[in-house]
Amino acid sequence: MRIMKKIIVKTIKAVLCAAFWIILWHLAAMKVDLEVILPSPAAVTFRLLELMRDGEFYLTAFTSLLRVLTGIIAGVLIGCICAVLTANISVLDTLLSPAISVIKSVPVASFIILLMLWVDKNSLPAFITFLIVFPLAWANISTGIKTAPKNLLEIAKVYKFDPMRKVLHIYIPSLIPFFISTAKSALGLAWKAGIAAEVLAVPAIAIGSEIYLSKNFFETTDLFAWTIVTLVLSVMVESLIGGLLSRLSRKYDYRSEENEHAEN
What we know:
Low-confidence stretches: 254-264
Number of strands: 0
Shape: globular
């Protein structure tokens, strides 16, 4: 009963918040009274419904979503692998650390423009997404490896755990919070970077391309409609993956408690 009450209260708050901003948007559009500058919520909604009647709309949304998810998955996997390697091979850590610092420091727009010279425009958004996610994954997982419970590692040494048992019973439970933090941080940043890359590279089928063309032809209603599509897809992906990560976190909570007891 309490859970239902919390859900209802949360839903009402979300609806009221959305209604406030939509009303504010409507009033601003009435004040401007020029659709090319600021279209009304109703005009954007009608245009969005028109777009949704076309099968190409779903192909465009799916293609952009696939590019971003490909970049996220590649960034997390390769970042985790590199973190494990650099944690165990000091020379590799010395070689990779400066490169990763450069990737973290260079503005996304600079990377997009530079890589447009070398990377196919259809692959560029996924590649840019990878570059955003990779340093996050590497940094977080490296920290997790370094902060693995030393007392448990000593116990593993005393009882002569093989490498696989160490990984399964010590390192993985210790790294789960860092992995979850990486994934949650990467989702929002990766989506923005991927769409920005599409806007600049203008692939054949992409949400970013539709945004770019809408801006060029002063189709502001289309610009708003595609921006809303971007927002909805981003929220959906974050909610879905965030839910899965929360379940993963709860699954390994008991192992964290065991680690704390062992430290005490």
